[in-house]
Amino acid sequence: xxxxxxxxxxxxxxxxxxxxxxxxxxxxxxxxxxxxxxxxxxxxxxxxxxxxxxxxxxxxxxxxxxxxxxxxxxxxxxxxxxxxxxxxxxxxxxxxxxxxxxxxxxxxxxxxxxxxxxxxxxxxxxxxxxxxxxxxxxxxxxxxxxxxxxxxxxxxxxxxxxxxxxxxxxxxxxxxxxxxxxxxxxxxxxxxxxxxxxxxxxxxxxxxxxxxxxxxxxxxxxxxxxxxxxxxxxxxxxxxxxxxxxxxxxxxxxxxxxxxxxxxxxxxxxxxxxxxxxxxxxxxxxxxxxxxxxxxxxxxxxxxxxxxxxxxxxxxxxxxxxxxxxxxxxxxxxxxxxxxxxxxxxxxxxxxxxxxxxxxxxxxxxxxxxxxxxxxxxxxxxxxxxxxxxxxxxxxxxxxxxxxxxxxxxxxxxxxxxxxxxxxxxxxxxxxxxxxxxxxxxxxxxxxxxxxxxxxxxxxxxx
Length: 463
Known about the structure:
The protein has helices spanning 11-25, 28-35, 164-170, 181-184, 188-191, 211-217, 234-243, 257-267, 269-286, 315-332, 356-359, 391-398, 424-432, 447-454; strands spanning 176-180, 196-198, 227-232, 293-297, 336-341, 369-371, 402-405, 435-439. By secondary structure, it is of the alpha/beta class. It has an eight-stranded parallel barrel with strand order 1-2-3-4-5-6-7-8, surrounded by four helices.
């Protein structure tokens, strides 16, 4: 991740600054007006949680860096003063000044990524899990500010993760719970505690076949107050359906996605994009184009780059292909929100760099979240699974909050309840790592009571 070098003021700058310094000392009220802060007071919003960026001034050259301030991505550097804490003029930075001294400007943290080799099998099927949020303009500034570009916490900041979009989707800043529709639809006590639900996986046909999701979520419907979070396995399903491929971890003698998947998808890419468009158009027609709807994109997309493939993709090809899928959806469904899959075993060395090289190949500005999929995840460990990748590491690398799930088997079969994800101490530790939701694929029937009992013990995932 790159940092912009701060310019040194030359002698002429120093002379000008000296002149203004003598002038401003004799007019203290003018200092307050120019710096946009109360004299000697910390700017509003510096430690109060969310404050949206409002355009703002650019940072002054040659001044002293403000404690806790943050540069927003997408801002424009200039020579004017910037808001700061304690009445000091911010220096050297660039970007829009946030209301109350924290920048937002709508940017997410910069992303990294790693080239990959050697993958794990993806799972596929009907149910899916996760959560999501809608990308929005501006973001929630953290205490002390977070950097918009570069993906690292600002001085005094908590993290570089923009949680504003999550709050916009779910309507509240809290830890979110979800499960599959078939588990919850006849359990009203559970539904009342859910923030989202996951229907059958998308892509099981060549054309839209998910009208029932719209029926669920219409006024008076079973999940009228929940957000649909849909696993989009369109490319994989197309390859399985039209080329008789199986999932990598499924039994059977036929070829699987880990060997013939990449080549077949390449040869049929236009048809797969058309399938994505069909589903997006279908949802636009029955669900509408204003309410948030979340898509967890192509579980284990990394598998198409592994050396076992007959015609493996480069990581760059994976990135451009994913952009095509996202664009096909956005064309018809502007309210769609996207989450990128986490494969904790990516190269180098089984996720040791937390996906920095892998995610560098993707336009992560198109994604609001990242999500786990497949095998069970570890609620009581800093590591997502047994690989090297950590919850906090991948969240910081991408600048995205995490939708966690409890895992599933072949064709989305349930892995059963995971009590570790019902323990407040575990959830709070993961919240600190950037996790904002959990999808239990097969919770116990009294999970609604469990959620109700632990909510008050959970930390707020937003600053």
